[in-house]
Request: fold
Amino acid sequence: MSYNSGVEVLLNEGLNNQTKKAGFLNINDNGYETLDVAVNSVSFSNVGITEITLTVNGGTYGLPAGSSVSFDAGGGDNRFSSGTFEYDTTGGILLIAYTW
Reply:
């Protein structure tokens, strides 16, 4: 079981000059967890060989091996609240990239 947090970098969002942070998580066989940060955007990539369960606002979906899915809150300072995204990485490997 491993859980590696990536570096945080500052991003400039262009015309409105807002500063964003970007980070990533590499989660290997950790079981059921929640993304505990409010995010502007997030991408989930299943880089393992087994399906991963992804829950978004209470709806549960299977993310097949080799698949990716992304969510964007609509730009500006719009955010998905902390706890919106949950995942079960039992037997799998999930890469999560996000901005907040």
